[in-house]
Amino acid sequence: MRIHIRTLVILALAIGLIALFLRAVDLRVVAREIRHAEPLWLAISFASMFVNLGVRALRWQYLLEPIAKTSFANAFRATAVGFAARGVLPSAAGELVRPYFLSRYAPISATGAFATVILERLLDLLTVLVLLASFVFVSGRDLSSANPTAFAAVKWAGGVSAVVAVFALVVLFVLAGHPEKVTRALKRAEAVLPSTFAGLLSRIVGKFVAGLAAIRRPRRLLVALAWSFPLWLCIALGIWAVAVAFHLAVPFTGSFLLIAFLVIGVAIPTPGAIGGFHEAFRFGVTQFFGAPQGAAVGGAIVLHAFSVGSALSLGLVFAAQAGLNLTGMRQLVSEAESGRTV
Known about the structure:
Radius of gyration: 21 Å
Helix content: over 70%
Low-confidence stretches: none
Number of domains: 1
Strand content: under 5%
Mean pLDDT: 82
Number of strands: 0
Number of helices: 14
Order of helices and strands: HHHHHHHHHHHHHH
Shape: globular
Structural class: mainly alpha
Distance between the termini: 26 Å
């Protein structure tokens, strides 16, 4: 019953976001804008999505090295399957597929691999905030006069998010650098928790802390952070190329602001970020860059198709090769959420 209620809530959320996205829009104008988009720039955007997957897999392979060696091919396959799962499942559930898929082909615990996924998200957040700050405080200061209220809100939200991200990184650093403290805390918990649950918790947390081995080495962490910049600059290129294709007046650095909006849109738990992604792009280009509604909506539809379609096409092929269909992905998520696969 709870699963059905959650499904209905997610479906209602997606429908509401799509309705917001398409409100007062002439779909004939949108279709015309898509037909007249520049093919070369669309091709550049589409190609950048595959490069993005490759760089992401390289960074993940590097983060996994202190835990277990894995090949780039395995990391790339798991990354593609994970992002394909995000295209058909809510994003939070899709994140669980990647480490559990990798554990089938590499000598690594799924929980340990999932710890590196959390570390990736923090590195991504820090990188996005650095790019956003470079736009807000350097190249995009002229926009403050166009929409001062929204611009001030962006600056405030970026500052708060930066503090939270740095704090979370410090907490993870302490956990990874002092596993004995975690062990002592678990022993105290075992004294008051049921033995079965305490044993499960101890096993999961132990592997999770082991998965944070990369963060114990500042140099390795800095290298992983350095990998994050070409990754997000590649994403920025894909966004900007679509903006150019639809003749939107968005400078390359303006894509840094759009990335921040898209990160928020993708965080809304709808399958494939449907609705949230679209509305985030439309809002960003219309409110800050004066884009016409038809071109903004058309650009959002195409960019989402590229972002989801590239990973979905590869991921479904790799998943099929492993005998994993949509039902299998859901089963994998169910096992991960219940803690049976550790």
